[in-house]
Write a structure and sequence with these properties.
single chain; alpha/beta; Rossmann fold; six-stranded parallel beta sheet; two-stranded antiparallel ribbon; 28% helix; globular; binds flavin mononucleotide
C-alpha cells in the first residue's frame, strides 16, 4: 500500500495533535510523519498518491492564515499556489476542526476551501462524513447533505473524537485499499 501523506494547518495546535493521532493509528508503515503545510511546497504533496489534510477554521468561516490573525502562514497562503497543478489520480481525505457553539453559522467552513481547490486540481475527494451528532445552523463544508470530510470539535465534543477518528480511518482504509 502506498504511503499516506499527512499535512495540516494549525494555530493553537489542535489540528496538529489530531494529525499525530492519525499517524499513530495508521502506523509508520502506512503514514508519513505529519507536516505543517506552512513548511511544504505543492510538489511535496504530489509525492503521495493518498493525502490526509487537516484544517481548523478561523476568522468567520475562513482558512487559517495571516489574515485571520494566525501566527504564521497556513492554508490561506498555500492554496493559491496550487493553481495549474494536476492532482488527478490522487485520493484526498480532509478533516476539519471547528467550534459549533461559538461559530454555529460558519461551522468548519474552511474544509470547503480545501475540498474546492483539490477538486479543481483533479483530485478525488474521499471520506465524506454524516452531519448527525453536530448542532450548527450553517456550514459551507456540507455538500450533498454530508460534510466533505471528518469534523471534530475539540472545544465541545472532545470525548467523541477518538471514536469518530477510528470510524473515519476505518472507512478510509477501505476507500484506498
Ligand atoms: C478567533 C477564532 C475564530 C474562529 N472561527 C471559527 C469559525 O468561523 N468556525 C469554526 O467552526 N470554528 C472557529 N474557531 C474554532 C477553531 O477552529 C477551533 O478552536 C480549532 O480547534 C482550532 O484549531 P488549531 O488549534 O489547530 O488552531 C475559531 C477560533 C478562534 C480562536
Amino acid at each position: 500500500m502506498a504511503k499516506v501523506g499527512i499535512f495540516f494547518g494549525t494555530d493553537t495546535g489542535n489540528t496538529r495533535r489530531i494529525a499525530k493521532d492519525i499517524s499513530t493509528t495508521l502506523t509508520g508503515a502506512v503514514a508519513a510523519k505529519p507536516v505543517n503545510i506552512r513548511n511544504v511546497t505543492v510538489e511535496d504533496l504530489l509525492a503521495f498518491d493518498t493525502l490526509i489534510l487537516g484544517t481548523p477554521t478561523y476568522g468567520e468561516g475562513q482558512l487559517p492564515g495571516l489574515s485571520t490573525g494566525n501566527a504564521t502562514e497556513s492554508w490561506e497562503e498555500f492554496l493559491p499556489k496550487m493553481s495549474g497543478y494536476d492532482f488527478s489520480g490522487k485520493k484526498v481525505a480532509i478533516y476539519g476542526l471547528g467550534n459549533q457553539k461559538s461559530y454555529p453559522a460558519e461551522f468548519v467552513d474552511a474544509m470547503f476551501y480545501l475540498y474546492e481547490q483539490f477538486k479543481q486540481c483533479g483530485a478525488t475527494i474521499i471520506g465524506a462524513w454524516d452531519t448527525e451528532g453536530y448542532k450548527f445552523t450553517g456550514s459551507k463544508a456540507v455538500v450533498d447533505d454530508r460534510f466533505v470530510g471528518l469534523v471534530l470539535d475539540q472545544e465541545n465534543q472532545k470525548d467523541l473524537t477518538p471514536a469518530r477518528l477510528e470510524s473515519w480511518l476505518t472507512n478510509l482504509a477501505e476507500a484506498w485499499a
